[in-house]
Amino acid sequence: MSRQRIAVLASGGGSNFQALLEHLSSLGDRRAGDIVVLAADRPSAAALDRARRAGIPTEVSASRLAPEEVPLARVIDRYMPDLIVLAGYLQHVPSDVTRAFAGRIVNVHPAPLPEFGGPGMYGARVHRALLSAGAAHSGPTVHFVDDEYDHGATIAHWSVPVHPGDDDRSLAARVLRAEHVLLPRVVQALAAGEIGVGEDGLLQRPFLARPLPPFDDTLDTDTLGRIVDAARAV
């Protein structure tokens, strides 16, 4: 089976893009997809530099187009991806794209959904809202993308405990570590056809056979990866 072509959309530093790139590389011939383009919504996004260093084609695509930018639909036409991954992408994806890629476009959100999602809920705002609510747990949620912000079917969530004395930065750093482990494995599973969503918008093939244990930040990345792999449904 040929590998799936993956387009990654990012807005900032691109650490999730880097984690995905490294995970796919570590799988070697077992990887089910290849990243064919990194598109950012601002020319200053550090994710673009990461992609260039890795030899991945880059594009700048945003809703308010400057001369050097191209519409997202044109990026898709140019690179013909099979899957789209939102990795810290802050723009609303046009409905024509989400509908054309229904079941083939995923996002990682840095908190439980739907409680801490929706328009304007991104970055530090999410972590501050969760801390203000007195929540005991946060953690990344990887979900399919539809026409609404943070609304599509949840694929996986990893509970990250909130520690006494946490502020938005310390919590964000811990959640980001969990994202770096969880998102690449979801993308690999999606590219391999191991998970999917039905016409009713509900998850048809689960990613996890059992819930993940609470995230333990004292563990190294390899051990965390094995924990996710052990909880897999296949």
What is the helix tally? 7
Give the % helix: 25-40%
Q: How many angstroms separate the termini? A: 18 Å
Tell me, rounded to a whole number, the average pLDDT: 93
Query: Using DSSP, what is the number of strands?
Result: 11
SSE order in H/E notation?
EHEHEHEHEHEEEEHEEH
State which percent range the strand residues make up.
15-25%
- How many domains would you count in the coordinates? 1
Stretches where pLDDT is under 50 for at least 5 consecutive residues are: none
| Rg, Å, rounded | 17 Å
The shape is: globular
Label the CATH architecture. Answer: 3-Layer(aba) Sandwich
- CATH topology heading: Rossmann fold
Structural class: alpha/beta
Main sheet: strand order? 3-2-1-4-5-7-8
Give the topology, please.
Layout: E1 4-10, H1 15-27, E2 33-40, H2 46-53, E3 58-60, H3 72-79, E4 83-86, H4 95-100, E5 105-109, H5 124-132, E6 137-138, E7 141-144, E8 154-157, E9 160-161, H6 168-191, E10 196-197, E11 203-205, H7 221-230
Parallel strand pairs: 1-2, 1-4, 2-3, 4-5
Antiparallel strand pairs: 5-7, 6-9, 7-8, 10-11
Textual characterization of the structure:
The chain is of the alpha/beta class and 234 residues long. The chain has a single domain, classed as Formyl transferase, N-terminal domain (Rossmann fold), CATH 3.40.50. Helices cover 33% and strands 19% of the residues. It contains seven helices and eleven strands. α2 links the parallel β2 and β3. α1 runs parallel beside α6, α5 crosses α6 and α6 crosses α7. The chain starts with a strand and ends with a helix.
